[in-house]
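cron nightly-structures :: item 1 of 1
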Amino acid sequence: MTKTQESFMFTVGKLDAGMAILLGERAHLIEFPSLLLPPGATTGSIVNISVQQNHAEEKKRDTEFWNLQNDILAEYGTNIPESPNLELRNVTQTSVTLEWPPLQLATAKLRSLDIYRNRQRLAAIPSPSTNTSTKLSGLQLDTEYTFQLILRTTAGTFPSNVLHVRTHTMTDTSGICVCFGTVQDSVLLENAKMALRDMGAKWSDKIQIDTTHFVCTTPATTPAGADATGSLANAPGVEYQKALQMSIPVVQPTWVLACHSERKMMPIHPYYLGASPIAAHSASYGRPQSMSQASVGSPTNRTSSPNTPRSANRQSMPPPARSAASPPVATKSPSAAVHHIEPTPEEPPEEQGESVKSPTNKHTRTGTMSKDFRFPPQTPGKDVPPPVPDLPPVPRGSNERPPQHVSSDTEEVSLTPLPVIQTSVEVPPPPPVDKERSPVGADMDEDVGETEEISLN
């Protein structure tokens, strides 16, 4: 290696704050560190400076730089994150279970992992570093969907494959995935497993993400748990508690047999644990009581509410025809007559006979009259027919309809003339008022409260 060396002469012009101003022969002015000056150099001293190139050091540094670049490329430029591979684990009528292998991020850092349905973002996958499956519910019956995962890292965005899934119909029972708990009847358990195998469904002894139903006959850990007295035997099993936490329906083995016999998905509410399938099924399809049966009651109930219209009771049933020789019928009970009909002044026998034997009045009723009965007030301005002698009861026509109840608003009641009987029945007084106010100054005391007398002298 050939070294070229040349010397330059400078005069120290000024020393200030660790820097020296050097003046060259050709009017060159440079700033030079005072620490590099020879010992004892002061202002006005003349120094010689020589410059030479070090090729060996240059080659060494170049080698170190490129080795570092190769290491960076091998560490961060060769291995990149892999796109997730989305797979279908299970599908039912209303849910889909998806899974994928563990994420390969290389040296990048994870930012988010999102699930997309029909190219629309649903939600972020919780704990994406360790979680490798998800279950999506609330889907439509017999409908096609597309699902995709989007992986976002510090090294970029990596989408997964697009998965096309179609939900099952009601007759497709292959999506059932059962977890068996404690079944006390071993024969029933074996029949349920045979039915699942015939339907193409799956079962296991542990709760999994694609478990659709938890089947058992008792929540206890052992088959004898329902009859045992020990606390451990009566305690609910671990898988049963997991099913409750994950909102997995807990049904009886008869639900599996019903799905197998009907060749379709059966409703689960009649087969819940602790419910009787027959009783629940009959109760859900029971016929409610008809309106005519619900509205027709005893004679006391029919007369207790005078504001109810007549057409509301037994509208679809014609009234039975009655002859003149029919036994007397009590129209109202004493309590009902006193409560609903206001008492009126007693009338002379002549006016009562005119009202009873009116030729225009077709509504007649034979029998005895209650001693507590009071006639309703007559309509003002109504023509009163002349009195007629006593006659036997006139038989009813085929088109006449007896009244169902007595009401002063809807019809008039005609009875045979009877002598007026003096009774002591009185209308009960109205209920007392909660607070009776005195005629003078009482309301002021209640509003003001406690008062104090003050002398004016």
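cron nightly-structures :: done
The domain at 6-53 is CATH 2.40.50 (OB fold (Dihydrolipoamide Acetyltransferase, E2P)).
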